[in-house]
Request: fold
Amino acid sequence: MRKIKVLIVDDSPLVHKLIAKALPGDSFEVCGLAKNGREGLELYGDLHPDVVTMDITMPVMDGLTAAQEILARDGRARIIMLTSRGDKESVEKAKALGIDAFIQKPFAPDQLLKTIQRLTLED
Amino acid sequence: MGHDNYISHFTAAFKENIIAMTGLDCTPGEARPQTRTFASEGVAVLIGVTGTRPGIIILDTSREIARRLSELINQEEYSLEDEFVLYTVAEFANVVSGHAISLINDLHALHLDLTPPSIFVGDKLKITSTKIRPEVVEINTPIGKMSLTAGFERGM
Reply:
């Protein structure tokens, strides 16, 4: 069975580690790590991941801008906003971009797994 | 947003998230005005607030408490020098700040945003706030004391 390729976009090396730890290696492959939205955008084009986890507050380019640019290039991109923010404005901005997967940190590994599975089963 | 209660959103977010991330409870003290210049205990995480009411948030603690907090969050052992200690404390401050700012935005119809955290480490660090007079709350936890300083421009 082909592994689900996940691109992690977050400025925290800790979050890179926690997400990688949450994803069982037999079903998932962390194909890339980006520390800001600009890097995430570039890696998305290079790596073609199945799912992207995207923080909002990052240097260089924030996650909502990066998500918007990724979706403009690939309308089928599956993005999970994974952020400490949970205010209505942030959630609504993500929804307006077409993103309906929004997880507030700290995340439960099981919640992340289920969300990735839901998104990848939608195809 | 009134001066009387914004700091309570930060202490509530601290309590909620230290329980969620470590299982430890904590006891916040009373809020008091922060001095214009204060000495860090050794590790300070600074997060800026941008948007309709610019401000600053500072989580401060000792290197040993930072190490113990990181071990509890990640379930791994660390030395004092391990950079993951700093990444973990920065992410903890980021989570606390994100929750508090989200609540303040929703309750007060504000549009506040956060900057990525900056981490400062040193034995004789002093932090001076020139434009903002923040408040500070000392928080007692089973692994030691941390402090949370927060303030906004225009006398908030």
